[in-house]
Design brief:
The chain is of the alpha/beta class. Helix content is 34%, strand content 12%. The protein contains 14 helices and 9 strands. The strands form 3 sheets. Strands 2-1-3-6-7 form a 5-stranded parallel sheet, sandwiched between helices. The chain has a two-stranded antiparallel sheet with strand order 4-5. It is globular and about 65 Å long.
């Protein structure tokens, strides 16, 4: 059941709060294609408050939020974009003036979050901390869930979000209720698989063929791609409204912007991950590619290859079986087929 039930004829109320944010998620959201933003606000929802696009300001804004709190407890969707400052610098993010005092983001999130029907963290900052909580974090910024510990916060990370991730989540709430969430409260609809699993260049990884320089059409793992540890559907959904491209397609390594450790845990962006986790084994990712390339050359199926790697060969994986000569031959072979 959705927010107001299947028989409701009233449009659900949405409040979009901006805290410590660059506004990138809202600006990305404006590029949604079906429905477009204008259709969405006219036909689907009552977007009663928007920190960036609303025409009201000053006391009128506070009145809108106060009246929603009083009249619609449990019946509005709260979207928060950005982190929440918590230490003595909490006045770095002020929503407005209430009762002749500054109403900080921390106070607003607590009050509005306590009575919201559903709560969405839009973007990696709101979901996990992101750039605004990166070291040294002078404002003591934290993600939304750290403030609303007793509530379920639906995390829709991305820096910025793909507009369809948020649009799909909101509309799922309205029509069907809460979507299936993973252990980090992300909708599995959009974050159910890693970038690596869906990547169009996955075959190059499996064959041990890696780009050595930007612009080469091979697996970008060695150039710093964080696809093996990043959950999102960028390769299949793609970006730019008409779904025409995504970072790896544009020869840019994935920097892991939807991950909870972004950005501190993903830096340096252009150095490869130290290793990749596989069931029952831990091995360097470039060695994983070389093993897979060898098994492919021998004609061994992927399931059997995985069993061999994680089983009786687990103790011997340190030896590098794929020589640089074999890799060069693979590259030449693929180039001949491609061109």
């Amino acid at each position: 059941m959705g927010l107001d039930g299947p028989e409701s004829k009233t449009k659900p109320v949405v409040l979009w709060l901006g805290t410590n944010t660059c506004a990138g998620d809202l600006l990305s959201f404006l590029n949604n294609n079906n429905p477009g933003y204008q259709t969405w606000v006219n036909d689907y929802v009552d977007l009663r408050y928007d920190y960036l696009l609303g025409v009201s300001q000053g006391p009128q804004n506070i009145e809108i939020l106060d009246s929603t709190l009083a009249d619609l407890p449990g019946r509005y969707i709260l979207i928060v974009e950005g982190t929440i400052p918590t230490n003595s610098y909490e006045f770095c993010s002020v929503i407005g003036i209430k009762n002749s005092e500054y109403w900080t983001a921390l106070q607003a999130v607590r009050e509005l979050g306590a009575k919201a029907g559903h709560i969405i963290a839009a973007g990696t900052c709101a979901a996990f901390g992101g750039p605004y909580a990166a070291a040294p974090n002078p404002t003591g910024s934290v993600p939304l869930q750290a403030i609303l510990r007793e509530r379920t916060v639906i995390n829709v990370p991305g820096c910025p979000i793909n507009p369809e991730w948020l649009m799909g989540t909101i509309n799922h709430l309205i029509l069907y209720g809460v979507p299936e969430l993973d252990s980090l409260n992300r909708p599995r609809l959009f974050y159910g698989q890693t970038i690596h699993d869906q990547c169009q260049r996955r075959a190059h990884f499996d064959n041990g063929v890696f780009a050595e320089n930007p612009g080469e059409p091979w697996c970008m793992y060695k150039l710093g791609c964080k696809g093996p540890t990043t959950y999102a559907d960028c390769p299949s959904r793609q970006w730019n409204t008409e779904h025409v491209s995504w970072p790896v397609k544009a020869n840019t390594p994935c920097i892991g912007c939807t991950s909870p450790e972004f950005p501190d845990g993903d830096m340096p962006f252009f150095e490869h991950l130290p290793d990749v986790e596989l069931p029952g084994i831990r091995m360097q990712a470039n060695q994983v590619g070389r093993w897979a390339g060898l098994f492919t050359a021998l004609g061994i199926g992927s399931h059997l290859a995985a069993n061999i790697v994680t089983g009786r060969l687990a103790g011997n994986y340190k030896r590098d079986l794929a020589s640089s000569r074999r890799k060069r031959l693979l590259k030449k072979k693929i180039l001949r087929k491609k061109f």
